Amino acid sequence: DAKTTQPPSMDCAEGRAANLPCNHSTISGNEYVYWYRQIHSQGPQYIIHGLKNNETNEMASLIITEDRKSSTLILPHATLRDTAVYYCIATQPRNAGNNRKLIWGLGTSLAVNP
Amino acid sequence: GAVVSQHPSRVICKSGTSVKIECRSLDFQATTMFWYRQFPKQSLMLMATSNEGSKATYEQGVEKDKFLINHASLTLSTLTVTSAHPEDSSFYICSAGLAGGPGKQYFGPGTRLTVL
Questions:
Q1: Which CA distances in Å does A104 have to B48, B60, B89?
Q2: Quick check: B108 contacting A, CB < 8 Å?
C-alpha cells in the first residue's frame, strides 16, 4: 500500500467548507484512495473512496489530482459533529474474500469551531 | 448500510483474568473480520485477520496465545484477551467487509478494556 501524508491538525468554522489534503505520491495504478473518520471513542466510519475520477456522496466530495499523487476530501458545510480524526488510505480495493487489510496513519484531527 | 456490533462496549477486569469480546455483522455475512487495538492519541494498529472456519493471521509482534481469535460463523468473531494485564488496557475495534464488495470496511463501535 502506498504511504500517505496528512497534516496533523486543521481548524474549520462551522458552516464553512472543510478541505482536508492527503499526499500519496507513490500510489500505484490499481490503488484506490479511501477516506475514513473516527469520532472520539468510536469505531471508524467509511466516508468515500475513488480511483481517479472525482467522487461525491451524501457525506463528502473527493477530488483526486490528475497525476493521482494527492487528493482532497471536502466537507461542504462542516458541522460540530464533523469534529473527528480523518484518515486517508491508499490501497487495492479487493482481493479474494475481500480481506484487504488497511494500514492506518495518524490522520488529520479536524476541529470544527462554532 | 452494513452494521457491525461489538459486545461489551466497556469492560473492567482484574489482572490475570480473561476477557472475551464479540464482534457481529448484523445484516451481512463476513468471511473476514479484522481486529484492531488503539491506545490513547494513537492510530489503529491491526492485531489480526480473522477468517471464518480457519486460523487467524496475526500481525508481527502480536501474541497469538494471548489474544485468541475464533471466527466460528459468517457473522461472529470473538477476541479473548487471556490473563489480562494493565498494559492490555486499550480500545479494541473490529471491522468487516462485504464478501465480493468494494474494499471499504465497516467498523464496530469498539470495546474499552481497562485492566486493574
A1: 14, 16, 20
A2: yes
